[in-house]
Write a structure and sequence with these properties.
3 strands, single chain, 3-stranded antiparallel beta sheet
């Protein structure tokens, strides 16, 4: 019994170290969100921080509503890509560890 508890504690400690490393790696990663066939692009980090917004000159006319919609769509695309990237990273870390369905880790 004591040995089993020690193994569980070692697994938990390793997982905690792996999570910290994954958080650092995700913070350095960048994704490209886009809309309008690439007319609006957003570069976002794994921490969901926007780094760069690019808007094609052809969109800088009078249709402000369309431009705002394209920017929002590009941001949403980038956020969804970051979420997918984090989910894949977490699947690698938690492989083989039985977590309850829907359990969310702290990032």
């Amino acid at each position: 019994m004591k040995n089993a508890l020690g193994n569980i504690m070692q697994q938990a400690q390793k997982m905690q170290e792996d999570l910290k490393k994954a958080q650092e790696e995700l913070g350095l990663m960048q994704v490209l969100g886009e809309s309008g066939g690439g007319l609006v692009t957003i570069v976002m980090t794994g921490k969901r921080e926007a780094r760069k917004v690019t808007i094609d000159d052809s969109l800088l006319g009078d249709d402000r509503d369309m431009l705002e919609d394209l920017i929002a769509a590009a941001i949403n695309d980038a956020v969804n890509k970051v979420g997918k990237m984090k989910k894949e990273k977490m699947a690698d870390i938690t492989a083989g560890i039985p977590l309850p369905p829907g359990f969310q880790l702290p990032f």
